[in-house]
Amino acid sequence: MNKSMIDVQWSFISIFTASLAHFILRIVLGRELGPEGLGVYTLAFTIYLFGMQFAAFGIGSALTKYVAEFIDDHATIRKYVSSGITSSIITGALMGIVLYLLAPSIAISFFKVPELEELIQLTAICYPFIAIQKAVLGTLNGFRRMHLYALLVITQNVTVVGVSLALVLIFGMGVKGAVIGFVAPTIIIGVLSSILIRNSLQKSSLWHIPALRETIVFGFYVVLGNSISLVNSQISVITVGYYLTSYEVGIYAIAVLLGETLTVIPSAVQSVTFPITASLYGKGDINGIRNVIFSTMKKTFIISVIITVFLAIFGQYLIMFLFTHEFLPAYIPLLILLVGNLIIAPFLAVAATFASIGKVHIPFQINAIFCILNLLLNIFLIPLFGIIGAALATTISLIIGFTVFTIVLIFYLKIDLIPSET
Question: Do residues 347 and 268 touch, judged by C-beta distance below 8 A?
């Protein structure tokens, strides 16, 4: 078995573990707290995801690129990795302070859910630590040490599930316990994670200005692109929370949760295709990049079709079995979301190609346009159709987004419909 296949397996294991942890927590919270409690948790976690993007500031992706690009130059790698850790601590601390101060406005003025304030402030504590962890993961990905990458992700998610379940089920702490359940492990594991890259750290390079500048500039475009992508994926949850109630947020969260199972495999594959395409680009092998992209998208689409058919047929039974009959209204939005996720899944498997070829600004520019489109669709459709409108808005945006991204990618790489080599 070649190195790439082994890497994909480790990446899949890590992402599957993260998705499984996310899934288990939603099942427990849905059963224990009902749609409204799940809705409050979903809003808190969504805000945390946005904060995490800016806390990590794309430093992890920058380190993946530069480590893979300078894989044989250990002195240069130490400069980038050491400076990247420094950058992560700074950006994470700044994001934590900002979100802590904004918590009252977000919870009360925007969502009109007062209990959110304390939950948001709790999540603000862990941003410097999640930023460090993202930098470590980016470094491990660049080195293609996917077994250590998977170990870190698995440890994080298993701990989150264990602590969260204990606080919710044994100590009866409800939504607050679930939030503490992912905040506390994040802090501890974030501190310990740097041990995995200790050989790539160097005290004299913690403030290496050129490396700091390059990682921050690269990370700036990455975080903008990723943040806009996150907005596109979460804007429906936010607008549902704004226009409707926590109850509807909880129902819609289940549709999103099941629909996102289509993104598990593409996300795992992307973490492997990123360093591969970055390495090929560094060697000037554009034809190799073309072949990787074509093959990856084709295989991802076939797998995604199988998963989509399964969820469409058994979706109602899964909702009843895993949650309760209260969540059955999530089935129709799920069917709609499956269409959009099926279309976008193949591109997600190679989405990091723009970053690997130095066109990191492209995803941001395209996603910014479709973020506006997505928001307008949600504003128009949610008041008319409720959570079904939210699903429609997301799916329409995903389909248009896939079309434009594919056209632009073909343009930059001059990819034919059939690669020149197989």
Answer: no
Residue carrying structure tokens 């927590």:
25
What is the pLDDT of the chain when averaged over all its residues? 87
Task: Quote the CA–CA distance of 319 and 3 in Å, as a whole number.
Answer: 38
pLDDT, tens only, 130-169: 999 999 999 998 888 888 998 999 999 999 999 999 999 9
Condensed to tens digits (0 to 9), the pLDDT of residues 375-400 reads 999 999 999 999 999 999 999 989 99
Q: Looking at the domain assignment, is residue 244 inside a domain?
A: yes
What does the block give as tokens for 86?
């420094």
Note whether 389 and 381 are within 8 A (CB).
yes
What H or E segment, with its residue span, contains residue 252? Answer: helix 246-259
Rounded to whole angstroms, what are the CA distances from 261 to 39, 48, 222, 272, 359? 19, 21, 24, 19, 28
Q: Please report whether residue 418 resides in a domain.
A: no
For range 202-213, the mean pLDDT = 70
What is the C-alpha to C-alpha distance for residues 120 and 183, in angstroms, rounded to an integer?
11
The DSSP result for 376-409, as a single string, is: HHHHHHHHHHTHHHHHHHHHHHHHHHHHHHHHHH
Confidence of residue 367 (pLDDT cuts 50, 70, 90): confident
Number of domains within the chain = 1
E strand or H helix that includes residue 64:
helix 59-69
Residue 378 lies in a domain: yes
Cβ atoms within 10 Å, residue 58: 28
Distance between CA atoms of residues 45 and 260, nearest Å:
16
Given a cut of 50, is residue 418 above it in pLDDT?
A: no
Average pLDDT over residues 18-27: 85
Residue 422 lies in a domain: no
Which pTM value belongs to this model? 0.78
**Residue 51 in tokens:** 């904060």
According to DSSP, residue 171 is labeled: S
Domain residues for the domain of 293 are 3-413
